[in-house]
Amino acid sequence: MRYVWLIIWIVVSKSLLAQDIWPPDVPKLDSVSVYDVNTGATIISWYPCDSADVAGYRIYRSINALWQPIANVPAPATSYIDNGASANFHPELYRIAAYDQVGNLSAMTPDNRYHQTIYVFPYQDSINCHFAIRLNWNRYINWEEGVKEYKIYVSENFGPFVLLATLPGNSNQYYHMDVNDNTSYCYQIRAISNNNKTSTSNKTCFFTDFPNLPTFIYADNATVLNNKIQISFTLDANATICRYQLQRSADGQNFQPIDFFAECGSSRYTYTDASANVEKRYYYRLVALDQCNQVRLSSNIASNVVLQATATDEVQNIVQWNRYQTWQQPIDSVYLYRIREDAPTHELIYSSAIAYDTLRHDNLTQAVLQNPSITNKFCYYVVQTEKNGNTFGMKGRSRSNTSCAFQAPRVFIPNTFTPNGDDINNTFKPSIAFVEKEGYLFKIFDRWGSVVFETTDPLKGWDGTQGGKVVPSGMYVYLLNYRTLDGSIKERCGSVYVYFP
User: Fold this and answer.
1) What span, in angstroms and rounded, lies between the C-alpha atoms of 217 and 396?
2) What average pLDDT does this structure show over 119-128?
3) Residue 3: is its pLDDT beyond 70?
4) Would you say the C-alpha torsion 256, 259, 260, 261 has a positive or negative sign?
5) Which CATH architecture has domain 307-406?
6) CA 139 to CA 143: how far, in whole Å?
7) How far apart (Å, rounded) are the C-alpha atoms in residues 47 and 56?
8) pLDDT band per the 50, 70, 90 thresholds, residue 433
9) Which CATH number fits domain 217-303: 3.30.70.330, 2.60.40.10, 1.10.8.60, 3.40.50.1370?
10) Nearest by Cα to 267 from 235, 224, 298, 297
11) Parallel, antiparallel, or unpaired: how do β-strands 416-417 and 489-498 relate?
């Protein structure tokens, strides 16, 4: 009898199964996550379906915006690894359905309840002109309890991943600041739900190769050229951010911009400051600007040499100047030159290897004795050079301005002379210096007003004769007319005693 009932039950069961038209309940997804960061494979997890006759689950992935079945997974499995996914290139979207033993298939996860993997991608960016790596990702959606937080992990130069930051659950962007140049950074993001479910993103990597700011700027020289100040700089030709501002200061403290240029690949920059007064000292520097016009690097200061010449009553000129500022190496030599209108070349009148030499007295007595008609205008300039050893391959050279001193006319007339042929005091003539050659007239008169000697040549004097005969001893009168170098007419007269011992 027991076997009869068993046969009846089997027959009835098969009949009922044959008549089963009710699909299982719609299963609910738990999470999706990147399973293999190298291949982009994903893992999909779900809750067991409540329906008792569930035989398995059908997994759907969005392919070209269409939901395509990719696998049937027999129950009681609640996860599936999708090796055909490409989650390392884009988010992968999933829905799921359940089927029973007779093939009845439930509806898919609702359109608005699909789950997708997190895809994170890095960008080069900057905050306040500081380079950064910006991470953007799609938020994890459709956890009923919502996302509590995102944890960002970083690996530097393929080392171990460490926690970089924890962000609120509504975040989808992060700036990684203070990153190093020429460094590999890899990132992964993990979403954590309010029920502590997790979903891990793809691994994304970024190698920093930031635009290069200049690593050096060197001021080679500030020198006077054609009565203008010329400044030259050596630049970092490998820089890829090339924004430069030339600044000038009158006191070495308060700098103002006078030029701007943006040029990469150049190793030299030269500027001629036509607005500068070469008789004043200026301070120059070149600064490198970043993309936000903030100063990121400054050169050494280049300051021109200013020379001043002053005439004195002692038939000499005082010449003084400042030391050049600043070269990488100390000052090597100082050369002082004098310029005269009646001399064909510039005269090197002093040189020194002592950098602190900044003052010189130029005694003109010997020059006057050699040339009584010498000009009263003496101009000077100084050249300073740098010692060898500059690491930029330069040897600095700076020329100062040219400064002139004007000596006052000098006239000395003796009051007696003895033309007796002993070669001592045999000629009577004024000793003159710093007067014009033109306009000179020297006359000698006897007591009756007759002219006994006359010349327009400053080098000629009276030998005590008239008409080839020696004049009598006694007092004679002279008259001297001359013109100063500034054009003024001067006249002097007096007496001289002629004595024949």
Assistant:
1) 15
2) 92
3) no
4) negative
5) Sandwich (2.60)
6) 11
7) 12
8) confident
9) 2.60.40.10
10) 235
11) parallel
Say how far residue 135 (Cα) sits from the centre of its chain. 31
C-beta of residue 272 within 8 angstroms of C-beta of residue 284: no
Joined tokens for residue 18: 């044959």
Nearest to 179 by CA among 134, 136, 215, 214: 134
Domain boundaries, the chain: 21-116, 120-207, 217-303, 307-406, 410-498
Average pLDDT for 122-146: 93
pLDDT tier for residue 19 given thresholds of 50, 70 and 90: low
- Token representation of residue 433: 């210096």
Identify whether the C-beta of residue 57 lies closer than 8 Å to the C-beta of residue 96.
yes
Domain 21-116, CATH among 2.60.40.10, 3.10.129.10, 3.40.50.10950, 1.10.443.10? 2.60.40.10
CATH dotted code for 410-498:
2.60.40.1220
Residue 438 exposed, middle or buried by CB count within 10 Å (0-12, 13-18, 19+):
exposed
Give the least confident one: 280-294, 347-361, 425-439.
425-439
The stretch 315-320 carries a mean pLDDT of: 94
Assess contact for 54 and 99: CB atoms under 8 A. Answer: yes
Give the right CATH number for 120-207 from 2.30.40.10, 3.50.50.60, 2.60.40.10, 3.30.540.10: 2.60.40.10
pTM: 0.67
| DSSP character string of 350-363 | EEES-TT--EEEEE
- Ranking 113-117, 160-164, 225-229, 261-265 by mean pLDDT, the lowest is 261-265
Residue 327 binned pLDDT confidence (cut-offs 50, 70, 90):
very high
Q: What element of type H or E holds 198? A: strand 198-200
Residue 283 pLDDT > 50, yes or no? yes
Task: Tell me the pLDDT of the chain averaged across its residues.
Answer: 90
Predicted pLDDT at 168: 98
**Token pair in block for residue 389:** 């050893």
